């Protein structure tokens, strides 16, 4: 960007004086090559990688009653969760689940910062997997840096090709699994082998695979820093008692390099040896010694590598650690930190979350696995039939949310002499939605107007299944 120098004098400018200068408003992205690290938090992070991926890739292959155990069948508008069959009318449970997820995020963030980001977020998990593949093929951090800086050669092109092939295959397998939650995965696998996969399945496999390949292979920390909204509003959920990755400035400063046998007090140095390893292992490339930054995902890699350095120099661990701002200022021990964790906002989040979870659980337990919708036949609101009886026609949509055939007995109540004139016994197949026309009649002489009535459904297969649905019977003037 070129900008004319301020207060430039009128008239010709001497040749030895520049008339303009350039100010760069954009810093080109520098690829981050995280260094490998081991330690307590790293082991936990990899444990979460294994747990989340075993669950994600394994669930679609589990069977339940001869069908896929977890399946969101959008085509037939049925959602199978183990033995639970849900319909779009059960959207309230999805709402409850989303509310619980949001409250859990608020709770965990208030207590321990970005735990989700550092250990379980798909972006973090897949970035770890892709980095592991990259390390196995291209070598450690220094080898990868040298390769990226070296001119293109046959060896470099070959390694890059192998790496990207492995990335693409893994990403496509991820896309295939994702679509397998919405289309029976065994049938989908057979379609892939036979080359008869549908257009929409193909599109979403490649779309999700491309997103995984791009986000975890190329964008990585840029997703966390620039695209993820959570990084922007997380500060609203933090306070001075939130556990975050912190650098003990009082103990570490002034920092400086030294030999292992040097007494830092004699040199006027703190515990930080200024090795920059905490920066080299950071997946987002920040320096934790500069304080809390929104780019920090709380993975604890810097704490692990710093503890290794402290061990080598014979210093106490914990120069970089999980702590709170109040604890660092007041010199609190772990017991004081834990006691302060049970502060009002945390207790409120926990209480509300527990109440909603109990309400959803009780609702699911008491849920009747059958639903009925009553719709008036608009083509014939009311009519007179034989013997002067008044008849209304209703359309009943019965949804069987069980995986067994239900024989349902229909009844109606609410007016003197009201009866069902059509077939009152109907069979509904497993997970079927059956629509039928029901003729309801009342004796002649009923007062004109609108009369509330109640349809009663009783399963003769399972006595516990019974429903009441309100409607209106119209008697013409």
UniProtKB/TrEMBL annotation:
The chain crosses the membrane at residues 44-62, 91-112, 166-185, 197-218, 346-365. GO terms for molecular function: 4 iron, 4 sulfur cluster binding; metal ion binding. Pfam families: Fer4_18, Fer4_5, FixG_C. Residues 258-291 form the 4Fe-4S ferredoxin-type domain. Keywords: 4Fe-4S, Electron transport, Iron, Iron-sulfur, Membrane, Metal-binding, Transmembrane, Transmembrane helix, Transport. GO terms for cellular component: plasma membrane. PROSITE patterns: 4FE4S_FER_1, 4FE4S_FER_2. This is Cytochrome c oxidase accessory protein CcoG. It comes from Hydrogenophaga aromaticivorans.
């Amino acid at each position: 960007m070129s900008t004319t120098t301020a207060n430039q004098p009128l008239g010709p400018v001497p040749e030895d004086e520049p008339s303009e200068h350039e100010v760069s408003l954009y810093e080109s992205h520098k690829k981050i090559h995280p260094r490998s690290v081991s330690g307590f938090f790293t082991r936990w992070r990899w444990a979460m990688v294994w747990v989340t991926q075993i669950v994600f890739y394994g669930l679609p292959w589990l069977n339940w009653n001869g069908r896929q155990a977890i399946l969101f069948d959008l085509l037939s508008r049925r959602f199978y969760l183990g033995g639970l069959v849900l319909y779009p009318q059960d959207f309230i449970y999805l709402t409850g689940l989303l509310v619980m997820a949001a409250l859990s995020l608020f709770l965990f963030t208030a207590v321990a910062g970005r735990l989700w980001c550092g250990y379980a977020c798909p972006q973090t998990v897949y970035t770890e997997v892709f980095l592991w593949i990259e390390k196995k093929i291209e070598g450690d951090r220094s080898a990868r840096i040298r390769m990226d800086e070296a001119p293109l050669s046959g060896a470099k092109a070959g390694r890059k090709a192998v790496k990207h092939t492995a990335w693409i295959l893994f990403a496509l397998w991820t896309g295939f699994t994702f679509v397998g939650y919405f289309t029976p995965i065994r049938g989908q696998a057979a379609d892939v082998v036979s080359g008869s996969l549908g257009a929409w399945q193909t599109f979403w496999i490649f779309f999700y695979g491309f997103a995984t390949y791009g986000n975890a292979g190329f964008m990585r920390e840029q997703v966390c820093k620039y695209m993820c909204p959570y990084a922007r509003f997380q500060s609203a959920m933090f306070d001075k008692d939130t556990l975050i990755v912190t650098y003990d400035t009082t103990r570490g400063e002034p920092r400086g390099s030294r030999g292992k046998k040097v007494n830092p007090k004699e040199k006027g140095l703190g515990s930080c040896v200024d090795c920059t390893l905490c920066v080299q292992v950071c997946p987002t490339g920040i320096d934790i010694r500069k304080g809390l930054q929104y780019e920090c995902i709380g993975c604890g890699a810097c704490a692990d590598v710093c503890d290794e350095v402290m061990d080598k120099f014979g210093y106490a661990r914990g120069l970089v650690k999980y702590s709170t701002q109040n604890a660092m200022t007041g010199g609190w021990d772990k017991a004081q930190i834990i006691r302060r964790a049970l502060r009002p906002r945390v207790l409120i989040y926990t209480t509300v979350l527990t109440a909603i979870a109990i309400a959803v659980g009780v609702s699911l337990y008491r849920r009747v696995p059958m639903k009925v919708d009553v719709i008036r036949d608009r083509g014939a609101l009311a009519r007179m039939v034989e013997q002067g009886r008044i008849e209304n026609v209703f359309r009943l949509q019965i949804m069987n949310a069980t995986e067994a055939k239900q024989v349902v007995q229909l009844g109606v109540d609410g007016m003197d002499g009201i009866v069902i004139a059509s077939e009152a016994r109907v069979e509904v197949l497993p997970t079927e939605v059956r629509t039928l026309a029901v003729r309801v009649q009342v004796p002649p002489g009923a007062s004109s107007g609108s009369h509330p009535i109640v349809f009663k459904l009783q399963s003769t297969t399972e006595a516990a299944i019974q429903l009441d649905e309100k409607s209106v019977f119209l008697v013409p003037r």
